[in-house]
Target: Xyloglucan endotransglucosylase/hydrolase
Amino acid sequence: MSSSVIVFLVLSMLLSTGACVNFTDVFKSSWAPDHIAVVGDQVTLTLDNTSGCGFESKIKYLFGKASAQIKLVEGDSAGTVIAFYMSSEGANHDELDFEFLGNVSGEPYLVHTNVYVNGTGDREQRHSLWFDPTADFHTYSFFWNHRTIIFSVDEIPIRVFTNKEEKGVPYPKNQGMGIYGSLWNADDWATQGGRVKTNWSHSPFVTTFRSFEIDACDLSGEDIAAAGAKCGKMAQFLWDKPAMKGVEKSKKHQFKMVQSKYLVYDYCKDTARFTQMPKECLY
Ligand SMILES: *[C@@H]1O[C@H](CO)[C@@H](O)[C@H](O)[C@H]1NC(C)=O
Ligand SMILES: *[C@@H]1O[C@H](CO)[C@@H](O)[C@H](O)[C@H]1NC(C)=O
Ligand SMILES: *[C@@H]1O[C@H](CO)[C@@H](O)[C@H](O)[C@H]1NC(C)=O
Ligand SMILES: *[C@@H]1O[C@H](CO)[C@@H](O)[C@H](O)[C@H]1NC(C)=O
Ligand SMILES: *[C@@H]1O[C@H](CO)[C@@H](O)[C@H](O)[C@H]1NC(C)=O
Model:
């Protein structure tokens, strides 16, 4: 066996530790199924002047990890938004958002993240990326347990939301969340503050998701309360082990590097917006 084959085998073993889920088993379309195409484990979302589209998981989850590889809209994506998010839905929803804000050809995408607890968001951050997200697939993921929520890009943490309930900051932990993906027109706000509109002569706009991995506590079954009690028990799941209380030591320097080089907006620094800074920003 040549050394390159051995390297390949070792790499594929490392890469295949999490099991990919079968898209059609786990997800269904939430709107405009005619704009969604599933081929193997790839799902392609299309936005044109008639509609965008979206998909959602069939069940909700309470704590765990979820990721997808996504290739964003190529070329002129101004006015379009691709979302990959978790939500409990409803007026008092908890939600974790990745929103990818398109741009005119050659200008960079922005990654907008938000955390909603019990219906209240207003916790936006925006990051630029250290690669062209339209050229290839990259992995975007959520990690969620009782203590912390981590948003990662290619396994590099870009945002951490820590449980500060003891300081009176609400934390999402009482509601299961589904996993969603969508592509839609948001040219009233998305690109350069809404100044650049979607140029429909460049439609259809297309994005592809693939290789979904979900390692989370599922809230399916007849007895949701019992499922919730099971998922809520700490320390029985991998994601709730004491070691998983924040960013792994080996990744702390990467997180700091992203914060210093790629964070372009942080609500916690926006003193013009808040007369009283949100509590989680103070501690
Ligand atoms: C996913 O599961 C469906 C049946 O639920 C099956 O028809 C399809 O071939 C599976 N797809 C892949 C990529 O394995
Ligand atoms: C939408 O796009 C199609 C094809 O590009 C075009 O024929 C049609 O006129 C457009 N409709 C609207 C409402 O702009
Ligand atoms: C969520 O918000 C509602 C008001 O919209 C409030 O009545 C309820 O107590 C809140 N729940 C929690 C867990 O804070
Ligand atoms: C789009 O490109 C402009 C110019 O480079 C930049 O200021 C902006 O942050 C980019 N992203 C969005 C979503 O507007
Ligand atoms: C939209 O794209 C077309 C084709 O590239 C171009 O001719 C036109 O000027 C663009 N419209 C705007 C408003 O930029």
